[in-house]
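Archive maintenance. Older records in this collection stored only the sequence; we are now back-filling the structure field for every entry so that each record is complete. The fields below show one back-filled record exactly as it appears after the update. Entries are processed alphabetically, and MFS transporter is next in the queue.

ARCHIVE ENTRY
Title: MFS transporter
Organism field: Stutzerimonas nitrititolerans
Length field: 382
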Amino acid sequence: MSVFTPSADLAAPIVRHATRTGFFIAGFGLAVWAPLVPYVRERIEMSDALFGMLLLCIGIGSLTWMPLSGLLIARQGIRPVILGCVATLVLALLGMALTESIWLLGIALFCFGGSLGVLDVVLNVQSLLVERELGRRMMSNFHGMFSLGSICGALALTGLLTLGLSPASGTLLMIALIVIANFLVMGGYLARKAPAGGVAFVRPSGLVLLVGALCFVVYLAEGAVLDWSALYLTGEKQLETSSGGLGYAAFALMVTVGRFAGGRVVNSLGTARVVAFGGLLAAAGIGLSIITDHWALALLGYGLCGLGCANVSPVLISSLSRQDAMPVHLAVTAATTVGFAGVLVGPAMIGLIAHFSSLTMAFVLLALLLASLVIGSRRFVD
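Back-filled structure field:
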């Protein structure tokens, strides 16, 4: 069941280009924040505890705005929502780069997380419509553009700052690139595809909740590797502190590679096998990072984890177009919101377990969770 009606323009190349560019912009915009963090800490005096609280504003913004995505799509259409999200993202980036007020920084981070959260949902909905129109599996490729955008964004702003540009000037240049790219493809964002009105919430079906739960595990793994792999590598594997970020770099690189190669893999294996094999490979990667004594093999383990996780969430989101228990745009909203909570819960869960047991035990439990994807995969039939 879907409120969307078929449209001939779905097959136009500009729609595919716009979908890829939209995901790239989302990843690019997200990555701008990381290089700005040290400069924000220098500009605004605050304790580590207060800064940690401010970082929660990003997740709170996403989790409070994302449930509204389905309603916004139904009432406004995909194109207006994407353009509104990009405009909000740009304003948020300006605030993060320029403000000297803790309160304004908190608001900017809240809008930053909220705009990216809604943008993620809306782009996934457009991707499903394009996939269904063309009869091809393209979600992995679309998500690969997000991963590529995040890598390019981080490298671009880091390079500009290294060359001596101020944080404000570098951010303005990044914003200009986002605006120009968005303007060039805005005609490919789908116009209104739903009748007026729409509801804000429909009780998720069992399949939608399962998709959300499996995505939750994958996103939990990503959050855990992002926030804890450096500490594990430097504390347990004797890697130099300056190289601690290589763990997440290996993970993110293999996610990107896996997604761009995902089309053939998904077509060959189907949803169930991609989820099952992906979970097992990711679990094996975490296992390797635990049992090895050498940091190089631990990096390989994180890379294998990224490769295993790469196509799980794209094929799960894609499967929502083949259910008829609830409208597709609301199904994507519900599943993505549940899944994204894993990014927030993951680091906290790892920290809690590490506090009461050890960081090694926390990663062991993470590996078991990833292996449990095999059980959930049995529900999917292509």
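Update note: Residues 1-8, 194-198 have pLDDT under 50 and may be disordered. Residues 103 and 126 are 35 Å apart (CA to CA).
Entry marked complete.
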